Amino acid sequence: MTQPSALPHPQGRRLRSGGMPWLSSLSSCVLALMLAMIMALSLSGCRENQASDADRASAELSGDARVQALLELAAASRNDDPLKTIDYSSQALTLLKERPEPASEVMALSNLAWAKMLLGDFAEAAKYGEAALTLAENQHQPEMLVVPLNVTGLIYWRQSQLDKALTYYQRALEVAKGLNKRSFEATTYNNMGLIYSDKAEYQLALECFTRARDIHQGLGDERPLATALNNIAGIHATLGDYGEALANQQASLRIREKLDDKPGVAELHHNMGITYEQIGDLKASMLQLQQGLKGFEALGDKTGMAQALTALGMVNQKLKNDADARASMEQALAYGEELNDGNITATALMSLGKLSLAMGDTQGARRYLERGLAIADRLGLVALQAQGRLRLADYFLVTSEVDVARERALQAQQLALTSGDRSLLRDTYDILSQVYERKGDYLQALASHKEFKSINDALFNASSQERLAWLRSSFEAEKRQRQITELENEKALQAEVIKQQRVARNLWILALIAVAAIMLLLYGRHSQARVNQALQRSIQMQRDLMQAVAHEFRAPLARVQLAFDMLMEADANEQPQLEDRVLRGLEELDELIREIVKLIKAEGSPRRAPSESLSLAPLLQTLVARQHQLFPEKHLKLAAIDEDLRLTASKKHLEWAINNLLSNALRYSRQQVQVSCQREAEHICIIVDDDGPGVPASERERIFEPFVRLDPSRTRATGGIGLGLAIARRLAENGHGHIRVSDSPLGGARFELIWPC
């Protein structure tokens, strides 16, 4: 009896919730593909057996033919109607009792195990799988073990009995090597890699996936090669190398599209959506995840739908669409419970716990998190165990149970170190920094924050926007079959030029980094004078500003570096364009430095700024006229102002604060901005109204933080780097005033500068 030499493996899919590492699960369409190959190869072997028995009686041939027909019908029904597969396989077993044929009986039992698994009856599935395996072992023919070993291993895997499943696949690997079946060996390596990833043993998983990829590549097997690339991408994403993850996903997607593999294409869109979410490109993430969800829905793949819904819920939560996030997560939880999939269920519960905590429902958050953690502990899923403890640390921090929060965070830290998940380890240091700060242990808080920043910077460098842009460009260029040829003599001629440009680039970068470091040092020394009065507030302010400045410098620096790198391979016609890009990047850095200097001056201005009595009417008329010249397309109106209105302030600083409010309103208004002034008790209120999108109530404090922009995509169109409002508030506070934000009668935002008379 001829047995299949290899078995298509279930495809890995990453499922992530709030920093969860990459986990594997199965797609029903891919499961159907596995069974199709098993049946095709096995039935072919049965026919070969028939042909060799030419001297059998006609009645025997008729009986064998009927068994084969029933096995073919069982295979044809495997995806659309598992109940029919059970019926046909049962009939075949009845016939085989009269005329035993071990190979056909093994296939019939494997069919029954498969169908029961698809119906969620894992106990029955395991019984039939073990029966098939026992029968195959009794025949002492290694090739007969291929199907039952894989099917039985898969059944235990679906029940999250990972160690037991791994035992079956290790046996399958020994059989493959003994039979010298390279394709089967690669398939088994891939399945073992998926189990190791579930166990959070990521280096072992990467080794298995890499071996599977190399074997499939050597054999020219495109479909399993695409799967191996996808799984390698998952491991890279878990280890924080998002650039490599996206590159492998794009390579896998190209193969899937070429083969018109709809389940594989849906899965790749889903995985790329998760990678974009990890990089921070939420718009691209949402588009990819929605494409993946549509693909899973068309296939009726509830496992895939549950994973896509969980990921979409997390993206919606980051976008502050809490209602949509909760709906997606609750639907994912329902699918997980329906499928009896502990992995999906636990992940959905932890996602709901994190969302509930963010929405202020602490009791609901605790219930979700403890339920999810109980499942993760029962199944031994290391990554989920770490994630659950980290989220509980969040909960206990919110409820002021600081010692319990510290205990949970340290448990999560140990699990993250064990698994090697850098994203999870980064989050544990962030929580520990907050815990130690609450306890008053500022040295430990700073040490934890340094660890957090170190890991976060490393992850950002691995997933920078410039790397992402390069990958996208490369991917699209490959689709259009664009080819760029360069002559060897041109390369030699440009080598010296490129070398000089590299030196100049490095000098610029070092100089800019030095300037940034000096600016940060000056700002730190300035803030140090207030540490003795409010140490906790100072630590928080310095930490936030350092992260923001570092983040703001990184993008333009990366653009400058990229432009220099491209000059290495650019021809003479492209060089002026690239040089212009370098200059624009340097101008952007120069603007950023000037704005930081302004912020520092605003912080220290109370000790240097002389005050004088000012008449508001002419001052506002002058400022409105200047701003109107900068925004001639906008309608800027100044309401009538009492000529007697006066206040005492530094003229320079008052003009500066009002200019920043006017500039902000004109940038974000649709067409109309109105300025007015009124007296309130011992204060004068300068009011700026606009008809723009307004500011949500929940964000009205955050917009005054340095570098905060509520809509980064809009900022590219409106300009600005997120310091104007921060500077305006500092100036107002230095003059013993303040700024408040509310809804404007014009439909947008109202900013009120309150200044003492």
Q: Would you mind describing this structure in some detail?
A:
By secondary structure, the protein is mainly alpha-helical. About 70% of the residues lie in helices and about 5% in strands. The chain is built from 29 helices and seven strands. The protein has helices spanning about 30-50, 60-75, 80-100, 100-120, 120-140, 145-160, 160-180, 180-200, 200-220, 220-240, 240-260, 260-280, 280-300, 300-320, 320-340, 340-360, 360-380, 380-400, 400-420, 420-440, 440-460, 465-480, 490-530, 535-565, 575-605, 615-630, 650-670, 710-720, 725-735; strands at about 610-615, 635-640, 645-650, 670-680, 685-690, 740-745, 750-755. A five-stranded mixed sheet has the order 2-4-5-7-6, with helices on one face. A two-stranded antiparallel sheet has the order 1-3. A hairpin with a 2-residue loop joins strand 4 (about 670-680) and strand 5 (about 685-690). The radius of gyration is 32 Å and the shape is elongated. The termini are far apart.
What is the structure about, briefly put?
By secondary structure, this protein is mainly α. The protein contains 29 helices and 7 strands. A hairpin with a 5-residue loop joins strand 6 and strand 7.
